[in-house]
Design a protein that fits this description.
- 56% of the residues lie in helices and 7% in strands.
- By secondary structure, it is mainly alpha-helical.
- Helix 11 packs parallel to helix 12.
- The chain starts with 10 loop residues before the first helix and ends with a helix.
Length: 339
């Protein structure tokens, strides 16, 4: 008697069905996301048409730039910087648009950077109160930046409406003016949609906006190695002029300052004091000990009236030449006439 044929397993068919369903869902989600972004732009354009005065101009981030890795990296650097500055206030920023629009964080950040207290209410829940706070904060910021003819690309309305372009431009201006100890990603550009109302007609244009430029030391390293050698020679002469007093000598800038020991000793010599040995590791072995030394040297620089170095301690320890040059050149410009 012939046996019944084996019934094929239903699993492959089920998998194909599930895969097909997931594919459809995925496609639907992507289409919905694009539709949502498109609607956001349409809403922005419509509001611009209704409320904008003649020749008024507004800018919005092109949705394609939201996923740009360099732009995301820039946002992360700015968020980490804010959180570092406001650590004592126990303020933690996770999203620039959602956490800065009401003026609370911007107020605290500006007060910390400038050292001046602003006359504003500490907590404001209403839209009117938030905009009043933003007005006070931005007026104070603009007063600081005005002598530098800074192009203010932000306003109360743009910040409060969570315009990411305006928020990032404002933070970049503050970071640069106050010499924030951060390493900004270079060559970051975004695509923006610029809307202008002219003779009652809404005109739009897609423009590429440059946010950060190439670093000066990068240019020096890439295009003028002869000048780089001149700078290094000047810095070596400068540091040896002081370190020779302790019978120490430097021949390689990036490697001999990497553990922070020479930086600490150099600061003591420049400021004419002895640094107690228990404050730093004289013979550091681990990465953490070296970072501790460089960080301590940076603190001594600030105690001496210098601004906090732009370089990160970790970069100096990792033998990053540009970071080491930045730190030493800052010392050179401030102490070149010291004996």
């Amino acid at each position: 008697m012939a046996s019944n044929p084996t019934k094929p397993s239903g699993l492959p068919g089920k998998m194909k069905k599930d895969e097909s369903l997931l594919g459809k869902l995925g496609g639907t989600l992507v289409r919905k996301k694009k539709l949502k972004e498109g609607n956001c732009i349409k809403t922005f354009l419509l509001s611009s048409l209704i409320f904008a005065e003649e020749n008024a101009e507004r800018t919005i981030l092109d949705p394609t730039s939201r996923e740009d890795l360099n732009f995301k990296d820039l946002q992360k650097v700015l968020i980490d910087w804010i959180n570092s500055e406001l650590e004592e206030d126990r303020i933690i920023v996770k999203d620039l648009e959602e956490d800065l629009y009401d003026g609370q964080v911007l107020q605290k950040l500006f007060e910390k950077l400038s050292g001046h207290k602003l006359n504003v209410a500490e907590v404001t829940q209403s839209e009117i109160g938030q905009k009043q706070k933003l007005q006070t904060v931005l007026e104070a910021v603009n007063v600081v930046l005005r002598p530098l003819d800074w192009n203010t690309e932000w306003s109360v309305d743009s910040i409060h409406s969570k315009n990411l372009v305006s928020i990032v431009c404002l933070l970049l201006a503050l970071a640069i003016y106050y010499a924030a100890p951060i390493r900004l990603p270079e060559h970051v550009s975004i695509k923006v949609i610029v809307v202008k109302k002219k003779e009652g007609i809404l005109q739009t244009a897609h423009v590429t906006k440059q946010l950060t430029k190439r670093d000066a030391f990068d240019t020096l390293l890439d295009h003028a190695p002869d000048k780089l050698n001149v700078v290094k020679t000047s810095l070596i002469t400068f540091v040896n002029k002081h370190l020779n007093k302790l019978n120490l000598e430097v021949t390689e800038l990036e490697s001999q300052f990497a553990d922070g020991v020479y930086l600490v000793l150099l600061m003591g010599l420049l400021e004419n004091y002895f640094v107690p040995l228990y404050h730093f590791y004289l013979t550091p072995e681990s990465f953490e000990q070296k970072v501790h030394n460089v960080t301590f040297a940076f603190e001594l620089m600030q105690d001496g009236g210098l601004q906090k170095p732009k370089a990160r301690p970790e970069d100096v320890v990792n033998l990053n030449l540009k970071s080491t040059l930045r730190v030493l050149y800052n010392l050179f410009t401030n102490y070149k006439n010291s004996e």
